[in-house]
Specification:
Structural class: alpha/beta
Strand content: 15-25%
Number of strands: 11
Distance between the termini: 31 Å
Number of domains: 1
Largest sheet: 5 strands, mixed
Radius of gyration: 17 Å
Helix content: 25-40%
CATH architecture: Alpha-Beta Complex
CATH class: Alpha Beta
Shape: globular
Length: 253
């Protein structure tokens, strides 16, 4: 199956080509076409594989605008939205994300398990299509252009845009899921350790302003010092979904 990989990047010319190669290594049966939107200070001058369409913008736009642009120009029905520094566990095969979407049309986003302490503890199950419902996905996820007819990235948000798009999916009546079989992490670590959001400029100021918008959209949600969002069972019900006994309250790790 032909699937597009949508990748925004900014000032990481040494990193995003490596990520393209790493994703290709885990494609499974998928026929991947990469769409890279480079929002850097200068244009990339190196070589790229023939299945990479490289787009350069010399004007700075935020991460939500980048993601909407890529979806609008996606040439395939299914796509994988990814950061430019994602890495996968050795046994991961990305075609499982698409298989889950095909079998479950009410799932708006299907993502790997994020490689944090919880993900490492849970591990993954070889050769299954098991998944779990969650509130939010990070780093990389699979979806479809049909699903994204129902919502778009909020272009006021220059951070936590991934949390918002998952909440939009919930409010539109879809599910958000993580696949047990794939574990993903990043090369650059957490937001703070990476020296700021790669697409946000002054990370702290942008983040603070964005959090205020997010709180207005979803009253009662609060953020801790590690930029993790927290929500109560009552707030989950207000979003239209009853809380589940799995990870639904362990949000945004």
């Amino acid at each position: 199956m032909k699937v597009s990989v949508l990748m925004p990047t900014r000032n990481r010319h040494d990193l995003f080509p490596k990520t393209v190669r790493k994703i290709e290594e885990h494609k499974g049966t998928l026929d991947l076409r990469f769409l890279v939107l480079d929002n850097s200070d200068s244009q990339f001058q190196g070589g790229l594989p023939s299945n990479v369409d490289y787009l350069y913008r010399d004007t700075n736009i935020n991460i939500a605008q980048c993601r909407n642009f890529l979806i609008d120009h996606c040439p395939t029905e299914y796509f994988i939205m990814t950061d430019d520094d994602v890495r996968f566990s050795r046994a991961s095969s990305l075609d499982r994300l698409i298989q889950i979407l095909e079998q479950n049309p009410d799932i708006a986003q299907c993502a790997p398990v994020t490689f944090d302490k919880l993900g490492a503890k849970e591990g993954f199950r070889e050769a299954s299509l098991n998944y779990k419902e969650v509130c939010n996905v990070l780093i990389v996820f699979a979806s479809s252009k049909e699903i994204f007819k129902h919502f778009r990235y909020d272009e006021r948000l220059v951070a936590v845009e991934d949390k918002d798009i998952s909440f939009q999916a919930w409010k539109a009546g879809f599910r958000v899921a993580q696949c047990y079989d794939i574990i993903a992490g990043t090369d650059t670590g957490k937001f703070r350790k990476a020296g700021g959001h790669p697409l946000a400029g002054d990370a702290k100021a942008y983040f603070d302003a964005t959090v205020e918008i997010f709180k207005q959209k979803y009253p009662g949600i609060w953020f801790d010092d590690d930029f993790r969002a927290h929500i109560t069972k009552e707030q989950l019900k207000e979003l239209g979904r009853p809380p589940k006994p799995n990870r639904l309250l362990e949000l945004f790790g």
